């Protein structure tokens, strides 16, 4: 090959790559009103299970077709979106299909009988193929096992809460077994090892995990840190918990903290506080939906960068560790936030600088309210400790929040509206972790896209006066390495405690 030929060859290769790869893409998420079985503890036949799943698939089909028509490249549908929740091992069984490893290179729509009876996978594959769109869904996987495997459950099979992805040709390209099951998911098994599932497209690298997984290191953080995914796919059945764990609030914060695109599709079921879906870019939410009032589903679409750039590396302790705590003369008090005891200071004036500490964490706030409403109390809180209720996870949290009433013991209780407006805020803390998720939630459970930023020295600050009254401004930090204190060290702590007492 001559130099000229080589150059021509290179030029052609490059232009081919450019033609095939996209700088941006259109993402869709669907908040789905799942049709639930009448009684999840009564076993049904496979036929009855299929009737219900097909009724849900009819609704998903409309959303998928509509998203595709509007130019979406990929659509995410929610966890438990075909059959709901509250099953036991036996009653979920008729809903499950054996889902093969994507390495088998299978387009179920073209070869429906290749892996036995798989009507749900066949239909999802055909929906993807016929609409030329990537389809993400959550279904159940079953894997027979026997005495050759000492961990095999007594009923002779593993059952997994499973996400599947079909590409725009209908090919199965991802299968992910949920690692961090939530309370009440006893119908499913935990995979033996956490699975880091990724796939590449012309619009970036994707990773996938499910619901409660977002609170833990594996596989969520690993996908970003070690596998460098651009976009996370997140089917969920998320029950909102205020003040720090409502869906749109926490999921958008994770996107910003981890600097990835995040596509969150929630179930719509207000009776269980399930609502809140969104399309979040690292710099700002692009679309979100929260609706406790209607019984309607909702399709969201937005354009995203295929490779969101990661400009600033944030040092989450840099600013706060240089602050000297000024004594404000205010008395600290304790109050419970979602079962955890925070240390608080009441914000007395309409402007001020406050510092509050708990264990290794000191939180610093500068703020200015437009006008302090007499019937509303705000407080600055700190928490550094292991949360041990629905899961065991170590938190470091700095939070500015509106108390439910003027009684300080209600600071941290769920409250959805406020009327106090802020001109500015700046919140920082002496975090012992690089995993800090910045949350801003306004009255009426609204996000504040484009109204705040994080600086490289670890301040979460307003860029302009927030567009609505503030419910909370929070730095939600996770200290993953302290999640599982070894039994030896907790024994030691208990011994030490006794000696000290
Ligand atoms: C629940 O029961 C009602 C009344 O028997 C029936 O009409 C409906 O189809 C059932 N729903 C499901 C999901 O089976
Ligand atoms: C046990 O399971 C393994 C793999 O799942 C299979 O290869 C083997 O044939 C099974 N043995 C019996 C006795 O069923
Ligand atoms: C973050 O900032 C603190 C305080 O300025 C400094 O001691 C620390 O070394 C910094 N950490 C990193 C990783 O740069
Ligand atoms: C708060 O601190 C900032 C600088 O950190 C300072 O400019 C401002 O005057 C302080 N405000 C009050 C009320 O002390």
From TrEMBL:
Record's keyword terms, sorted: Cell membrane, Glycoprotein, GPI-anchor, Hydrolase, Lipoprotein, Membrane, Signal
Record's Pfam families? CN_hydrolase (PF00795), Vanin_C (PF19018)
For this entry, list what GO says about its biological process. Answer: pantothenate metabolic process
Q: Cross-referenced PANTHER family, in alphabetical order?
A: BIOTINIDASE-RELATED (PTHR10609), PANTETHEINASE (PTHR10609:SF16)
Q: Which GO terms describe its cellular component?
A: plasma membrane; side of membrane
What is the annotated localization of this protein? Answer: Cell membrane
The family annotation for this protein states: Belongs to the carbon-nitrogen hydrolase superfamily. BTD/VNN family.
Mind telling me which InterPro entries this protein's record contains? Biotinidase-like_euk, Biotinidase/VNN, C-N_Hydrolase, C-N_Hydrolase_sf, Vanin_C
Please explain the role this protein plays, according to its UniProt record.
Answer: Amidohydrolase that hydrolyzes specifically one of the carboamide linkages in D-pantetheine thus recycling pantothenic acid (vitamin B5) and releasing cysteamine.
- On the tree of life, the source organism's domain of life is Eukaryota
Q: How does it assemble?
A: Monomer.
Q: What class of enzyme is it?
A: hydrolase
How does the UniProt record describe the way this protein sits in the membrane? Lipid-anchor; GPI-anchor
The record lists the catalysed reaction(s) as:
(R)-pantetheine + H2O = cysteamine + (R)-pantothenate
Q: Which residues form the CN hydrolase domain?
A: 39-306
What organism does this protein naturally occur in?
Molossus molossus
Q: What protein name is recorded for this chain? A: Pantetheinase
Q: Look up the EC number in the record and give it.
A: 3.5.1.92
Which residues belong to the signal peptide in this entry?
1-19
The active site annotation covers 79, 178, 211
GO terms for molecular function, please? pantetheine hydrolase activity
């Amino acid at each position: 090959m001559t130099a000229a030929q080589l150059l021509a060859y290179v030029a052609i290769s490059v232009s081919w790559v450019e033609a095939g790869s996209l700088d941006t893409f259109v993402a869709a998420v669907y908040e789905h009103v799942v049709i639930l079985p009448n009684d999840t503890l009564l076993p049904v036949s496979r036929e009855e299970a299929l009737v219900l799943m097909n009724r849900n698939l009819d609704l998903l089909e409309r959303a998928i077709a509509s998203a595709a028509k509007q130019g979406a490249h990929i659509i995410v549908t929610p966890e438990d979106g075909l059959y709901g929740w509250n099953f036991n091992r036996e009653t979920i069984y008729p809903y499950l299909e054996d889902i093969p490893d994507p390495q088998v290179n299978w387009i179920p729509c073209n070869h429906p009988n290749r892996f036995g009876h798989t009507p749900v996978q066949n239909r999802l594959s055909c929906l993807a193929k016929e609409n030329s769109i990537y389809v993400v869904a959550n279904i159940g996987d079953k894997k027979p096992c026997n005495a050759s495997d000492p961990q095999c459950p007594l009923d002779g099979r593993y059952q997994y809460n499973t996400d599947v992805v079909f590409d725009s040709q209908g090919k199965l390209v991802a299968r992910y077994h949920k690692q961090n099951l939530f309370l009440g998911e006893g119908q499913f098994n935990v995979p033996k090892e956490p699975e880091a599932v990724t796939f590449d497209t012309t619009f970036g690298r994707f990773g996938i995990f499910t619901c409660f997984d977002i609170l833990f290191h594996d596989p969520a953080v690993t996908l970003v840190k070690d596998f460098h995914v651009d976009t996370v796919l997140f089917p969920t059945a998320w029950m909102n918990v205020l003040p720090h764990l409502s869906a749109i609030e926490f999921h958008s914060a994770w996107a910003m903290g981890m600097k990835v695109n995040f596509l969150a599709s929630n179930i719509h079921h207000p009776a269980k506080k399930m609502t809140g879906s969104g399309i979040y870019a690292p710099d700002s939410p692009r679309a979100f939906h929260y609706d406790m009032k209607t019984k309607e589903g909702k399709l969201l679409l937005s354009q995203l960068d295929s490779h969101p750039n990661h400009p600033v590396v944030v040092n989450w302790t840099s600013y706060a560790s240089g602050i000297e705590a000024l004594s404000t003369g205010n008395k600290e008090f304790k109050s419970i936030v979602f079962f955890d005891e925070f240390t608080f200071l009441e914000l007395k004036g309409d402007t001020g600088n406050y510092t509050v500490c708990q264990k290794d964490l000191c939180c610093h706030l500068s703020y200015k309210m437009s006008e302090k409403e007499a019937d509303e109390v705000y407080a600055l809180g700190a928490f550094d400790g292991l949360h041990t209720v629905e899961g065991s996870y170590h938190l470091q949290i700095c939070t500015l929040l509106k108390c439910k009433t003027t009684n300080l013991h209600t600071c941290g209780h769920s409250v959805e509206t406020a009327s106090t407006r802020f001109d500015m805020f700046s919140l920082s803390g002496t975090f012992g972790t690089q995993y800090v998720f910045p949350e801003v939630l306004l009255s009426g459970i609204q996000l504040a896209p484009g109204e705040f930023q994080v600086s490289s020295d670890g301040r979460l600050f307003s860029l302009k006066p927030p567009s609505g009254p503030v419910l909370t401004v929070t730095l939600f930090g996770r200290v993953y390495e302290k999640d599982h204190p070894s039994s030896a060290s907790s024994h030691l702590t208990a011994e030490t405690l006794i000696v000290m007492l």
